[in-house]
Specification:
disordered C terminus, about 0% strand, about 70% helix, mainly alpha, single chain, elongated
Length: about 80
């Protein structure tokens, strides 16, 4: 059971980081985002959190939930 709770914590971290990333770009158009290193770095950090947490989710949980990102590849993370 402790492992299931651990995975739930990782999934919550991923959800909160995804919400943060969306909030960081809310109201910005592409040009404003490209011009703001602050916003870019904030989103990058959120994506790192998602990737790191996704890599720690147990294989059984990942098998049951194929939408969970696997590892740190930016291609696997869609916010």
């Amino acid at each position: 059971m402790a492992e299931a709770g651990r995975d739930e914590a990782y999934l919550l971290d991923m959800l909160l980081a995804a919400r943060d990333a969306r909030a960081f770009v809310s109201g910005l158009d592409e040009a404003a985002f490209r011009a703001s290193r602050l916003h870019q770095n904030a989103v990058i950090r959120s994506l790192e959190i998602i990737g790191e947490a996704g890599a720690k989710v147990l294989p059984a949980t990942r098998a049951a939930r194929p939408e969970i990102p696997r590892g740190k590849s930016p291609a696997c993370v869609i916010v």
